[in-house]
Design brief:
Length: 264
């Protein structure tokens, strides 16, 4: 009995609405495995990750490790674009599968057959088209984002503490004054731990030290977008206070990394 790996991926809410959701893929793959008398060796799900981001697809990497450990005989996925959207990444992965004698099947696209020269030609052509579409989509997204930034509009629905979104723009909310107080306290004491004892988890502020440090480093609070767009939003923190906090954050990084030698 062949051992099958079920690989699933979705990168956007749009794909979910179009019937490409993880549950839909899982149901189809499980049925295919059952109908073909395959033993399911594992399920690998990269949820919310673009097909072009090879190194960030942790479940794909885990699956390839299981291939090298000889735990898998065949890989099942629904469509080729769920598997790869880059010729280079596909070729590198296929070399690993060939080495360990592992095949694959796109159950919704039975046209692909890598056992014949014609099948391999069709596959390479389709991979090239998929890569072109992915790159073209990325370019359109970057153009839309650039336009939004030029209009001082947010490009995502996430906000940082002290701000809310009104008509696609960031404006200070009821917690803005507390955020300013946190900056002032850090400027005075230079200790994130002390500031967190007062503000951690309150007023929309983060509760972990790395996240709190990122908040204190955010240029939004001086009215600037991280991409360098100035006057992006109303500033919560005066520029001189923001700069002082950045200077002290850098000093603390250096002091924390300093080595103490026994005979110094």
């Amino acid at each position: 009995m062949k051992r099958a790996a079920l690989y699933m991926r979705v990168s956007s809410a749009k794909q979910v609405k179009e019937g490409d959701s993880i549950p839909a893929q899982r149901e189809a793959l499980r049925k295919y495995a059952k109908d073909h008398n395959f033993l399911i060796a594992g399920e690998y799900i990269d949820d919310g990750i673009s097909g072009t981001k090879y190194s960030q697809r942790d479940e794909l990497q885990r699956m390839l490790s299981d291939v090298e450990a000889r735990k898998i005989d065949i890989i099942l996925f629904t469509k080729l674009d769920r598997y790869f959207r880059s010729v280079r990444h596909y070729t590198a992965t296929q070399a690993i599968l060939d080495k360990y004698g592992v095949g694959w099947t796109a159950i919704w696209e039975p046209i692909y057959d890598t056992t014949t020269p014609q099948g391999r030609l069709i596959l390479n052509q389709m991979m090239s088209i998929a890569q072109f579409e992915a790159e073209n989509t990325g370019q359109r997204i970057r153009q839309v984002q650039a336009y939004k930034l030029s209009q001082k509009e947010v490009i995502s629905g996430q906000t940082t503490a002290g701000y809310k979104i009104v008509n696609k723009h960031l404006v200070p909310d009821e917690n803005a004054e507390h955020v300013k107080e946190a900056f002032e306290m850090y400027s005075a004491c230079g200790s994130i731990n002390k500031v967190m004892r007062v503000y951690s988890g309150k007023y929309g502020m983060p509760s972990s030290k790395p996240a709190f440090k990122r908040m204190l480093s955010s240029p939004f609070y001086k009215g600037e977008h991280p991409t360098g767009v100035t006057d992006f939003c109303p500033a919560i923190v005066p520029p001189e206070l923001w700069e002082d906090v950045q200077r002290k954050l850098k000093i603390n990084i250096k002091s924390n990394n300093r080595q103490v030698y026994l005979f110094s």
